[in-house]
User: Fold this.
Amino acid sequence: MKSLVVVAGVTVAAFLTIAMLGTAGWSLPPIAAQQHGFRGTGMDQIQTKREAAADQAANQAPAAADPASADGDKAGTTYHNVQVLKDLSTEQFNRVMTSITEWVAPEQGCTYCHNTENMASDDLYQKKVARRMLQMTQAINGEWKEKHVHEAGVTCFTCHRGQPVPKNVWFENPGLTAKGLTEPRNNGQNMASPEVGLASLPYDTLTEFLGKKGLDDNAIRVNATTALPEGKGKSIQDAEKTYGLMMHMSQSLGVNCTYCHNTRAMSQWPQSTPQRVNAWHGIRMVRALNGDYLEPLKGTFPENRLGPNGDVPKIGCGTCHNGQPKPLNGAHVIESYPELAKATASAADAKPQPASPPADAPK
Ligand code: HEC
Ligand code: HEC
Ligand code: HEC
Ligand code: HEC
Assistant:
C-alpha cells in the first residue's frame, strides 16, 4: 500500500513539474546572474541565458557607412536650404542623408522627408521634424556626453531602429474620460498601464516626472531625510508616483531595482551603485529633450501623431534603452558620425542645461 502511494506521489510531482516548465511565467534554466553590489547584498541581475542572448540579438547596431571626403564644396553652398549641416562637405552631407534614410525610413526612402521635385522644399512635416531631430541628436551627444551618453553616444537609429516612429514613445494618459453624472474618480490609479508595469500605481506618472522641464530636483524623493518628522512630509500617493516612475525605469533598462539601489536603504546615495547617478542625469536629460525639442514641435506634427490630450509623442528611458542597461549592447555608435556630435550655433538657442547630482551622490 505504502509503495503505491509513493509511486502515485512521484507520478503527480513529475506531471506538475513538466506542466510548470511548459506554462507561461516560468523561465527555463540555465541562469545568467550578474553581481552588481557588494557580495552578500543580493544586488544581482538575473536573466536566463536564453533571454540574454535574445536581448543581444534584438539590439544590434547597424554598420556605419564608409567615411566620405571632407574636400570640395560645402553643403551650405551646393544646396539651397541646408541649415544645420551646412559646414559638411557635399560628399559628407550625402553620406548623412543615406544613413538617416537607413536608420529612420529604410522602406519609404528619401521621399519620406522630401518632395523629390524640389529637395530644398520644407513642405513635408517629416523634414521639419528631422531637422529638429538633427539638432536634438547633436545636443544629446554634445551637452549630455559627460553626464549620460559618454563615448557610446546615440544616432537616429538608437531610437528609431529602422522605423519613422520609435517603438517606445509615450503620451499623457488621461485615464477614464467618460463624462456625465457618474464621472469616474480613481485618483489617477488602478488602471492597467504598461508604463507602470500594469501595477495599481498612478498611470500618468511620466507626465509628472519626465514631461515637465524645470521640475524641482527633489520632486521624486519621498523618504524622510531626518530621523524625526520635522514637517508634513510626503504622502503615500507621492510614494506611489515615485514607484510608478521606478517601474518605468526598471522595465526600460531590463533590470530590477537592485541595479541602482541597495533595497535596505533606497534613498541613500552612498549605498547605491554608480549607475544610479547615470540614471539621475538620465531623468534630467529626458525632461530637457521633451521640453526643448519634442514639445515645441506640437504645431509641426499632424493631428494623427498627437496623443489623446493633443500632446506630442514623448521620449522615455526605453526610447533609447529598449530593454537594455546600455542601448545597442553598448556600441559606440557616434564614433563614425562626428557631425552628429557637435553642438552647432542653431542648436545653441535650445541648450538643455545639465544639472549636478546631489552633493552626497557617489562619485
Ligand atoms: C528622415 C528625413 C530625411 C530623409 C529620409 C532624407 N532626408 Fe535629405 N534632408 C533632410 C533634412 C532635415 C534636410 C535639411 C538639413 C539641414 O537643414 O541641415 C535635408 C536636405 C537634403 C538636401 C539638400 C536640399 C537643398 O537644396 O537644400 C538634399 C540634396 C537631400 N536632403 C538629399 C536626400 C537624399 C538623396 C535622400 C535619400 C537617400 C534624403 N535626402 C533622405 C531630411 C531627410
Ligand atoms: C532620443 C530619441 C530620438 C533620436 C535620437 C531621434 N529621434 Fe526622431 N523621433 C523621436 C520621437 C520620440 C519622435 C516622435 C514620434 C512620432 O512622430 O510619433 C520622432 C519623430 C521623428 C520623425 C517624424 C516621424 C513621423 O512620421 O511622425 C522623423 C522624420 C525623425 N524623428 C527623424 C529623426 C532623425 C533624422 C534623427 C537623427 C538625426 C532622429 N529622428 C533622432 C525620437 C528620436
Ligand atoms: C536605473 C536606476 C534605477 C532603478 C533600476 C531604480 N531606481 Fe529608484 N531611484 C533612482 C534614482 C536616480 C532616484 C533619485 C531620483 C531623483 O531624486 O530625481 C531614485 C529614487 C527612488 C526612491 C526615492 C528615494 C528618496 O530619496 O526618497 C525610491 C523609493 C525608489 N527609487 C525605489 C525604487 C524601486 C522600488 C525600484 C524598482 C522597482 C527602483 N527604485 C529602481 C534610480 C533607480
Ligand atoms: C538619448 C538616449 C537615452 C535616453 C533617453 C536615456 N538613456 Fe540611459 N544611456 C544612454 C546611453 C547611450 C548609455 C550608455 C553610456 C555608456 O556606454 O557609458 C546610457 C547609460 C545608462 C545607464 C548606465 C548603464 C551602465 O550599466 O553603466 C543608466 C543607469 C541609464 N542610462 C539610465 C537611464 C534612465 C533611467 C533613463 C530615463 C530617465 C535613460 N537612461 C534615458 C542613452 C539614453
